[in-house]
UniProtKB/TrEMBL annotation:
This is DUF418 domain-containing protein. Keywords: Membrane, Transmembrane, Transmembrane helix. Residues 230-392 form the DUF418 domain. It comes from Algoriphagus zhangzhouensis. PANTHER family: HYPOTHETICAL MEMBRANE SPANNING PROTEIN, INNER MEMBRANE PROTEIN. Pfam families: DUF418.
Length: 394
């Protein structure tokens, strides 16, 4: 008899669900820009919006959204794995096949997501790295934290991946070599759904350097950090932990914010920035600053949750977080309907402000829908399927 059981509602930690819900909002704010204009032509697309309002929105996105929410969600993913592992280990039920099934299903969802909805999927990367993380669950805290720091701080992933791709004579640029921004626009707005599927996979292959040279190392670092926090059961003492780190968190955030502003408005004009090594180091420090700001978001939400009377403002986020996978996929479905030929065909017609407003509008709908859903069901639809696949008969 299989005695592995999914987490019951009474075992859930509300603040972690709020974190996940907040991350889902930020991810959609970023992703809707990629849905509205392909990575292939995004720079040209953004440059055409010159109104003060749109330029302010672009600055807001740069300062408060880009590279802030992917690390948050990755950290929570690693933390979730460790919490499951600890619970199973305490019952003597921890085994690789459990996580193998769990990550295998997630990988499948990622492939379907890319094929039918959105090429910017990261679930397959999460699944691959999730399997690697499970191998490290029983390793020492020191090793896990050391690996996290190595993955986080190493600056030359682009060069390493470029060398690997060159060794295998693999050039991702060939996948979109025959495409122009105008052709992409025509395919997405007016082409057949089959044509859009083909383009999604070509775009995904084109973005391999970005996915595996930028996102994957960041995800691995945050997975490991989440695993470290989970193994130390930080979730059992979040209130005291948030209080203890308040001063270093505020000081570090202040210094990294100063760096982010200097990077955006000063450093890119320096001669040293124009060198390959200099540019790589400056960008790595910028990414670290963005990650720190994401961690500040979590700390701030935790502080508000535990030390103010504003819990009711944050509480609705938990419903989105409890069905994070479903809501993540739903956002891509909304993007498909909004921007492609199967829906309204608004690709590259919405301004940055309109995209941002749409993202918030859709998220408000998700909050309301998720709350209503949990009045009748215990988990989201994709979460239910995922659990059935993972826990088999339970």
């Amino acid at each position: 008899m299989n005695s592995q059981k999914p987490t019951s509602q009474s075992q859930r930690i509300v603040l972690l669900d709020i974190f996940r819900g907040f991350a889902i909002l930020g991810i959609f704010v970023v992703n809707i820009g990629a849905m509205n204009s392909s990575y292939f032509s995004q720079e040209e697309f953004v440059a055409q919006w010159t109104s003060p309002l749109d330029q302010i929105v672009e600055l807001i996105l740069q300062l408060f959204f880009y590279t802030k929410f992917f690390p948050i969600f990755s950290l929570l993913f690693g933390l979730g794995i460790s919490m499951q592992a600890i619970r199973l280990s305490e019952k003597g039920l921890l085994n690789f096949s459990f996580f193998g099934r769990r990550m295998g299903f997630l990988f499948l969802i990622g492939l379907l997501h890319i094929t039918f909805l959105f090429s910017g999927d990261v679930l397959n990367i999460y699944a691959i790295l999730g399997v690697l993380i499970t191998i490290l669950i029983k390793r020492s805290n020191k090793l896990i934290l050391t690996l996290a720091l190595v993955f986080l701080l190493f600056p030359f992933y682009d060069q390493v991946l470029g060398g690997i791709l060159e060794f295998f004579n693999f050039d991702p640029g060939v996948f979109l070599a025959d495409y122009t921004p105008q052709k992409v626009n025509e395919i997405i707005r007016f082409g057949s759904y089959v044509d859009s599927i083909k383009f999604r996979w070509l775009e995904y292959m084109y973005n391999i350097p970005l996915l595996f040279g930028f996102f994957a190392p960041m995800a691995m670092a945050m997975f490991l950090l989440g695993l470290y926090l989970g193994k130390n059961k930080i979730y059992e003492k979040l209130d005291s932990y948030i209080f203890q780190i308040r001063k270093p968190m505020l000081w570090i955030t202040l210094f990294t914010c100063i760096y982010r502003l200097l990077f955006l408005f000063v450093f890119t004009g320096w001669d040293i920035y124009r060198t390959e090594v200099g540019r790589t180091i400056f960008i790595k420090l910028m990414v670290l600053s963005d990650i720190q700001f994401g961690m500040f978001y979590l700390w701030l939400i935790g502080w508000v949750w535990y030390h103010t009377h504003w819990q009711k403002i944050l509480s609705p986020l938990q419903y989105v977080g409890r069905m994070a996978l479903t809501n993540y996929i739903f956002q891509s479905l909304v993007g498909l309907i909004l921007f492609s030929s199967v829906g309204f065909g608004l690709y590259e017609t919405m301004s940055p402000f309109q995209s941002l407003a749409t993202a918030f509008g859709v998220f408000i709908f998700q909050v309301i829908f998720s709350k209503i859903w949990f009045n009748y069901f215990k988990s989201g639809p994709l979460e239910w399927i995922w659990r059935r696949f993972t826990y088999r008969n339970n």
